[in-house]
Amino acid sequence: MAKETNQDADSIMLPSVYGQLDLQCNAEDISDLLEKIQGRSTEAGKALRRSGSKHEVLLNLKHAVDSRYAEFSEVVDLLQKGEESGNQSIFLFEPRNAAIKARLRSGSVIAERLFGEDWGDDFFPIFERPTKGIKWVDCRLGLSGKPRDWLLKAYGHDQRQETTDNKFGEKVGDGLFQDRRLYRVRDINTVMVVRWRDPRYLEIRIDKSLSRNFNDTLARMATVTALLRPAVDVTTELVELSMRAQVTAMTRDRHVLGSEKSGKNRVYRLGRMTVLDGAKVGVVEFRPGSDDDNIDDDDAMAASLDKLLDGGGMSDRTPIEWVAPAKAIEKYVPLRTVVEGKCLNVVSVQSRVSPEALDYVLEMLTSNS
Fold it and tell me: How many CB atoms are closer than 10 A to CB 312?
């Protein structure tokens, strides 16, 4: 069984914004920013290179800032876009009453409860990770086009032993034997995000990096809710925002919006899913093969699903693959997500995406929830 430890790991922690870019962003995104910077002047075009290894393009980006071809804020913006959206399980909650909602709608009240007077541009963002555990590294009030939204971010670092081999019964002497376990120590670097999406709900985004299963996700969720508790108690002051009705409607309407075999006007397709029966006491699983397979590729299975829904069945765990040619997600198509959790209040996004792509998915899943 894996064990959490604090021994030396197999990689070196990289403080600074460039170290975080190395951890969280891909070379292509860094190169795209360099191309934009090169186009600003002949001098920048000659001085900078946007090809080579990830390390080389990072050095060129640092050179661009040091030489004043680019603003440091552009680097921060690239990091935020690269690490805050996607490869996450996103838990959605609503305030339990009007007083709690009023508190959540005031980002300054939340910030003061968490940080006292120690917040704002003089204190955030922070680019260093803790040696162990989790800590707040950013607090932003008012997001692009959303003046009443706010966002908190925490960096986490832990280590885990992972068994690579077991040696049983090795002879070490006359009549002496030993069992030996070989393992490596892995760094687990996580980015957790809490966002208030005004005027309605709170998102808690849990990083899926090196997560083995949903229980790992829940354990990470507990560390974030503890960190957030001075501002809002998730257990007592919030309720789950269930997407069950919306996902059920999407499942029922998939022939119009989702999965017709012609592919015309297709927006999404559904994979291996579970459905609560009409009496809400049993669960029926539809297994087209894997989460990535389209449930409507099997006519008999699709007909059974429709019959169950017509009898009052409700969607439960549902993989949704977004294939719409919408501008917000076209770069990521097919975009794989799973709606899950006991109350269907969790959206797991399988890869890093842009903030706009994540907004698209959440809007589709919560518009009628």
Answer: 12
Entry pTM? 0.87
Tokens of 27: 């070379």
Q: In 3D, which of 240, 208, 239, 235 has the Cα closest to residue 222?
A: 235
Which sign, positive or negative, has the C-alpha torsion 351, 352, 358, 362? positive
Separation of alpha carbons 229 and 235, rounded Å: 9
SS3 breakdown of the chain: % helix, strand, coil, rounded to 5?
Answer: 35, 30, 35
**What is the rounded CA–CA span in Å between residue 241 and residue 357?**
20
Tokens, residue 32: 């795209």
CA distance 57 to 321: 33
**pLDDT tens digits for 2-57?**
333 333 333 334 448 898 898 888 898 999 999 999 999 999 999 999 999 999 99
Of 103, 87, 82, 86, nearest in space to 33 by CA: 82
What was the pLDDT predicted at 264?
A: 54
Q: Under 8 Å CB-to-CB from 216, ≥6 apart: which residues?
A: none
Q: Can you name the residues that pair with 50 across neighbouring β-strands?
A: none
- Give which of 11, 197, 210 is closest to 93, Cα–Cα: 197
Q: What is the pLDDT of residues 208-257, one digit of tens each?
A: 988 888 889 999 999 999 999 999 999 999 999 999 999 999 999 887 65
As a whole number of angstroms, the distance between CA 165 and CA 349 comes to: 32
